[in-house]
Amino acid sequence: MKAAAGVSAPAAEESAGGKEPLKIIIAGAPASGKGTQCEVIKEKYGVVHLSTGDMLRAAVAEGTEVGKQAKDFMDAGKLVPDEVIIGVVKDRLEQSDCKSCGWLLDGFPRTPAQAEALASAGVSADCFLFLNVPDDMLVDRVCGRRTDPVTGKIYHMTFSPPDDEEVLARLEQRSDDTEEKVKVRLEQFHANVDAVKGNYVEIGVEIDGSKKPGEVTEVIAAALEAKVAA
After folding, report:
1. Which domains are delineated in the chain?
2. What are the Cα distances from residue 105, in Å, to 22, 41, 125?
3. Which of 42, 70, 101, 147 has the greatest count of CB atoms below 10 A from its CB?
4. Is 110 among the residues known to form the active site?
5. 107 three-class SS
6. Measured at the alpha carbon of residue 15, what is the angle toward residues 9 and 20, in degrees to the nearest 5?
7. What is the distance between the alpha carbons of residues 221 and 124, in angstroms, rounded to a whole number?
8. Burial 103-118 (b: 16+ CB within 10 A, else e)
């Protein structure tokens, strides 16, 4: 997996004419900045932003065959097995919006088994973006997060605290945004990430996610423009 260089990128609209729509996977540890970058990628390239949680809920609500299977496990309080999740993902990627606009798969696959199952199901991407952030910075990012229960807006006590004292007073910390719990999540992440990356060596781009969001966006844009131009 190669490291991306930060070079300026032309507008996607100018370079993507007549090309196949982009198919992107973005990966990174909790608080690596995936959500922020997904919003930018979605807006810039017009791809469909997909997370497994949203796809599972939609499949259950729509009553699809794999949605019914997923519902059985969810109703029983069990983890949905990989083969069902892969079925949900494959069904979603075959829908017309994903075929015409391209897609951005957010935080999936999480394990090498899931990556291999995706490949076996015929799902392939053009680019695998990996946001690399040191663990100590990830812990700081997570533990400083606070949510406004009134608006749902997320703040950070160090990087983006609210200006309003009334808002500051009512902020809440999620129960799993503690140092102890985030370290457990990071251990789980590190146990699988190298093997997952190994499935995408040919299309992988490793990005320094410790930089400011705007700088990370520039590097991602350069990497995606290279794919568009290829």
Report:
1. 23-229 (3.40.50.300)
2. 11, 11, 9
3. 70
4. yes
5. coil
6. 120
7. 20
8. bbbbbbbbbbebbbbb
Is 211 annotated as catalytic?
no
Q: Is 135 exposed, middle or buried (0-12, 13-18, 19+ CB in 10 A)?
A: middle
What DSSP character marks residue 77? T
Catalytic-residue membership of 146: no
The CA distance from 69 to 72, in Å, is 5
List pLDDT tens digits, range 59-112: 999 999 999 999 999 898 888 999 999 999 999 999 999 999 999 999 999 999
> Which residue in 23, 92, 145, 146 is the catalytic one?
145
Whole-number Å distance between alpha carbons of 35 and 143: 17
Q: Which of 90, 185, 197, 211 is catalytic?
A: 185
Tokens of 108: 């999936």
Catalytic residue among 44, 57, 90, 110: 110
Choose, from 34, 71, 92, 146, the residue flagged as catalytic. 34
174 tagged catalytic:
yes
Q: Which amino acid does the sequence have at 97?
A: D
The pTM is what?
A: 0.83
